[in-house]
Amino acid sequence: MSPTVFRAALCLLAALAAGCRSSQVASGGPAIIQPGAPGQDNRVVSAAQATDLSKVQYTEADVKFMQGMIGHHQQALEMAALLPERTSRDDMKLLAKRIEVSQLDEIQMMQEWLKARGQALPDPHAHHQHGATLMPGMLTQDEMMKLSLTTGVEFDKQFLLGMIKHHGGALVMVRELFGTAGAGQDGDIFAFASDVEADQQMEIDRMGALLKELQK
Q1: Is the Cβ–Cβ distance between 62 and 177 less than 8 Å?
Q2: Which of 43, 44, 194, 199 has a 20 to 30 Å separation from 153 between CA atoms?
Q3: What are residue 111's phi and psi, to 5 degrees?
Q4: Where are the beta strands (DSSP E) in 83-173?
Q5: pLDDT at 34 over 80
């Protein structure tokens, strides 16, 4: 190979290397090859694009989870609203306030999530309708009536038993969501369902300890 040809080859290699580096810098990181769909070419994406979950699509199961959880939360609010006039315990009143604040905020979040995606907003009070299908853990109308007719320590016990059952139903709903193929991948859904799982289990443990104290 002549010196002229050799120098030309070196210049070509240098130019190609510089081009690769420029491409990586412009894309914000090393280039990643994303396989194309059948019959389509592969394409180069940046590391940032490869980890971006903003375009993950929600599923029908996600929508049903949000719609069902709104009614589920609403009943928890109705149960908590019974408590202030039927108990003398400050820790029970604090529990009711904690439930009220968290459930109201989450209902609003779920409604906004559905509206942003053009999905129907359910009637939060639909569970009062005759023959309504209840979400897991929800109390029947008879159980709610029985709870509303008790006071004092007996009310405290029935409330805790009912709310433990109610929270347990929320955990079932989360497990069903994550157990459905493709569901729970939307960023907002995943974060919310994970928080529900952690928070409801924590409250179940707290209420279980309080129930044991009342049963002594």
Answers
A1: yes
A2: 199
A3: -65, -40
A4: none
A5: no
CA 103 – CA 88 distance, rounded (Å): 23
Domains and CATH numbers, the chain: 3-50 (no CATH), 60-214 (1.20.1260.10)
User: In whole angstroms, what is the distance from residue 76 CA to residue 9 CA?
Assistant: 75
State the residue for tokens 């904690």: 98
Beta pairing, strands 32-34 & 43-45 = antiparallel
pLDDT at 57: 83
How many other C-beta atoms are found inside a 10 Å radius of the C-beta of residue 180? 15
Residues 184, 62 contacting (CB under 8 angstroms): yes
Question: What's the sign of the alpha-carbon dihedral 54, 135, 173, 96?
Answer: positive
- Fill in the DSSP letter of residue 29: S
pLDDT of residue 26: 44
Judged by average pLDDT, the poorest of 2-11, 39-48, 144-153, 198-207 is 2-11
Is-contact 50 34, C-beta < 8 A? Answer: yes
In this predicted structure, the answer to whether residue 13 has a pLDDT above a threshold of 70 is no
Measured between alpha carbons, how far is residue 63 from residues 74, 115, 144, 189 in Å?
17, 11, 27, 9
Q: How far apart are the C-alpha atoms of 103 and 175, rounded to whole Å?
A: 19
CA distance 177 to 190: 10
The span from the CA of 116 to the CA of 62, in Å, is 14
Per residue in 122-136, pLDDT tens? 999 999 888 888 999
Percent of the chain with pLDDT over 70: 74
Strands (E), the chain: 32-34, 43-45
